[in-house]
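Hi all, posting the design record for the shared folder.

TITLE: backbone redesign
STEP: 1 of 1
STRUCTURE INPUT:
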């Protein structure tokens, strides 16, 4: 047991030595505030929400920002077993001639149903989404 305590004490002394060599003394909040502020401005935020399907495609869901990613699923957890899409994960893609199930826009996302295979806006079904800002 004493050996473990001795190792911990030596490790603590080494870390303290590194701090002194690197920063000249103890690390203070002020020393890190500029770096912290810069990193906080780059962080991404998660936004959670719900919508109730109306069965109409295309459908715009407005978030008020251009999301980097959106995950959509039915609130009841159904994932699909009939060849239809009940959940979807959308990332930015370039516009194409074929509509995607979910296209990210400058203000949110647009739901589509190419080939009538999408169930991410089925009438009277509640959906949840997670959007990464």
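Okay, here is what came back for every position:
SEQUENCE:
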């Amino acid at each position: 047991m004493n050996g473990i305590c001795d190792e911990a004490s030596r490790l603590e002394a080494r870390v303290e030595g590194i701090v002194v060599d690197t920063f000249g003394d103890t690390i203070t909040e002020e020393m890190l505030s500029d770096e912290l502020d810069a990193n906080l401005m780059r962080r991404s935020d998660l936004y959670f929400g719900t919508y109730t399907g109306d069965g109409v495609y295309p459908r715009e869901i407005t978030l008020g920002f251009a999301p980097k990613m959106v995950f959509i699923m039915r609130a009841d957890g159904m994932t699909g077993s009939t060849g239809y899409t009940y959940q979807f994960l959308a990332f930015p893609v370039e516009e194409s001639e074929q509509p995607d199930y979910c296209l990210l826009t400058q203000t949110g996302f647009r739901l589509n149903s190419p080939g009538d295979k999408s169930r991410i806006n089925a009438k009277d079904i509640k959906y949840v989404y997670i959007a990464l800002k």
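COMMENT: Strands lie at 46-52, 59-62, 69-74, 88-90, 102-104, 108-111, 126-132.
Let me know if anyone wants the other runs.
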